[in-house]
Amino acid sequence: MSLMDWTDSLALGVAPMDATHREFVDQLNALAQAPDDAFLGLLDAFIVHTEAHFAQESRWMRETGFPALHCHEAEHEGVLGVMRDVRGHVAQGKVNVGHVLVAELPEWLRNHLATMDGALAYFIRTVEYDPARATAPA
Question: Would you give the DSSP letter of residue 4?
């Protein structure tokens, strides 16, 4: 059983963004089902994925002139900060702290998709930016 299922209701209509979010959900589910001895390695991979995911969105925001750039990036940095802090606890053998993070992330993601990422996806479509090609219309 999955911790979080990817459904069409989570899709934002920007294919590369939706693909990255689906990968996020897949990795989150893998963490939820991981045995303790595999948790740290999967958490490290999840953090790397999340860093790339957030960097990708930051690039899109900068290239499109997205007005809420700083607010959106601040939330990303906050989440990454928590992930890195939790990683330190897991490395010390406190895997239970990692499980708390995993249990909280689905609600955070749903909210983030419905608000900040939803606004970004709308803006991307409005300015006719193609994130797959990383180009904005002239």
Answer: S
Domain 16-126: assigned CATH number: 1.20.120.50
Secondary structure (3-state) at 135: strand
Region of 77 (left: φ > 0; alpha: ψ -120 to 50; beta: rest) is alpha
Q: For 48-92, what is each residue's pLDDT tens digit?
A: 999 999 999 999 999 999 999 999 999 999 999 999 999 999 999
Is the alpha carbon torsion for 92, 107, 119, 7 positive or negative? Answer: positive
- Domain borders along the chain are 16-126
H helices within 65-129, ranges in order? 69-91, 95-112, 118-126
Closest to 54 in 3D by CA, of 32, 99, 95, 84:
84
Residues found in the chain: 138
CB atoms within 10 A of CB 114: 13
